Amino acid sequence: MSVTTATPASPRKDGRTPQSILPTLLEMQGWSDYALLDMGNGLKLERYGRFTIVRPEPQAMGQPRLPQKQWDRADAVFTGDVEEEGPGRWRFNKQLPETWPMKYGPVTFNGRFMSFRHVGVFPEQAAHWDWVQDQVQQSGRQLKILNLFGYTGMASLLPAAAGAHVTHVDASKKAIGWARENQEMSGLSDKPIRWICEDALKFVQREVRRGNTYDGIILDPPKYGRGTKGEVWDFFTSMPEMMACLRQLLTEDSRFLILTSYAIRASFLASHELMQEHLSGLPGSIESGELAIREKDSPRLLSTSLFSRWCNPEGAQNK
Ligand SMILES: C[S@@+](CC[C@H](N)C(=O)[O-])C[C@H]1O[C@@H](n2cnc3c(N)ncnc32)[C@H](O)[C@@H]1O
């Protein structure tokens, strides 16, 4: 597995001009227990450990590369729901175990066929796992890390294995049970991880009142969620309060804050790849990104849409 940064984050010391904001692509290329094998026609074909899986992927608007028979041989197919967040169901092409083990570095974790098309791990997060492990190793002291909405624990177990002290928060008892199962399977039971089953926002509000701080914070909030007492988590309305609290849990000596948001599922890469596929025989190049509106008399940007733009500078010239 290797992670590459396609375009560097821009320095933004002074005037935040539009040209100074370049998207950074954190690219995850798979590892021995995960591969994105193919995509197209609104589906993706992946391998998780020893099983291949087909799941809906609205952004895979192009054509698959591999022959249909390879897709037909998939061990499990998620069907029955076109809704992004719908429960849907799995169809199995042979008898499969309820769980199966996979590895990422020092961590062994179980896959499970869950509702909402999940299998217990978000492989693209490996880009963050590696980066956090680097931070832990480079810091030269035991980092105190907070992992919110921690799910099955990958972002807690990996830094803990590298020497960090981790506080893992999730509102689901089941998810915490699964994360602890992964901890045990990985032989990391002696590592300092505090498992906390609580509403994430309530927990950070309490940490602010206690005056606690962290060296690093990771959060991967869903679009909608529920706390242990039915508290409503809504990404767009809860995130401002969450960010205000997180600021108070960080000091000038803290090292990182990573926020992943799946609330916006479309990416400029989807239209870029589609245009690339259909225009591939033409000269010129394609650039893609987002359109944003700049606020009057302010450096703030509002993203409105994605774009892809093909240009052939040699075209339509008087020859
Ligand atoms: C890892 S996150 C999101 C995963 C994925 N990125 C997505 O968007 O579906 C899902 C986790 O957040 C937890 N969760 C949801 N609402 C929560 C809340 N209010 N407080 C704490 N954890 C919550 C869930 O139990 C689940 O384990």
UniProtKB/TrEMBL annotation:
Q: Which SUPFAM superfamilies match?
A: S-adenosyl-L-methionine-dependent methyltransferases (SSF53335)
Looking at the record, which segments are called Disordered?
A: 1-20
UniProt-listed Pfam families: Methyltrans_SAM
> Ranges for the S-adenosylmethionine-dependent methyltransferase domain?
98-233
GO MF terms here are: methyltransferase activity
Xref: InterPro entries: Glyco_hydro_b, SAM-dep_methyl-trfase, SAM-dependent_MTases_sf
Tell me the GO BP annotations in alphabetical order: methylation
- What keywords sit in the KW lines? Methyltransferase, S-adenosyl-L-methionine, Transferase
Superkingdom of this protein's organism: Bacteria
Name used for this protein in its record: SAM-dependent methyltransferase
